[in-house]
Amino acid sequence: SIAILLYLARKFKTPDHWYPSDLQKRARVDEYLSWQHVSIRGKASKLFLTKMLLPILTGQPVPPEKLETVTEELNVVLKQFEEKFLQDKPFIAGSEVSLADLVALVELMQPLGVGHNPFEDRPKLAAWRKRVEEALGKQLFQEAHEGILNASNV
């Protein structure tokens, strides 16, 4: 999915902020896109699968200690994300939204879809989410995430 996003950004010459031509900004985007596979993506989808799919497959509720472990793993990478990538900037690569922000926020919508709010008690993360949503357009963002946000209703 990352490879196709980069391909599309280059092929259709999207606005520069999505995949910046400035080498330092692009390096920040690339750094995040490489890091996220085993961090936010891995931990957010693990929480989603544990809360949603595991009970369906086993017919049993998830043991609380298992859910606690998976939740703590996500909390660790969220702290790393805030400290390493967001720091005190509005977006991952600086002052404008990029593909890195889009990918990061998409991953964090999975836990939200199963009733775990990764933005709760994290004002920096919540403010960043709001900026990304506003940059994309709230209506488009909600439409794009309607399925995952209603996953618990299936």
Please explain how this structure is put together.
The protein has 154 residues and is mainly α. It has a single domain (25-150), classed as Glutathione S-transferase Yfyf (Class Pi), Chain A, domain 2 (Up-down Bundle), CATH 1.20.1050.10. It has helices at residues 2-11, 23-35, 40-58, 64-86, 99-113, 123-136, 138-149. The longest helix is centred in the middle third of the chain and has 23 residues, at 64-86. It is globular and about 50 Å long. The two termini are 25 Å apart.
Helices and strands, with pairings:
Layout: H1 2-11, H2 23-35, H3 40-58, H4 64-86, H5 99-113, H6 123-136, H7 138-149
Helix pairs in contact: 2-5, 3-4, 3-5, 5-7
Report a brief summary of the structure:
Helix content is 69%, strand content 0%.
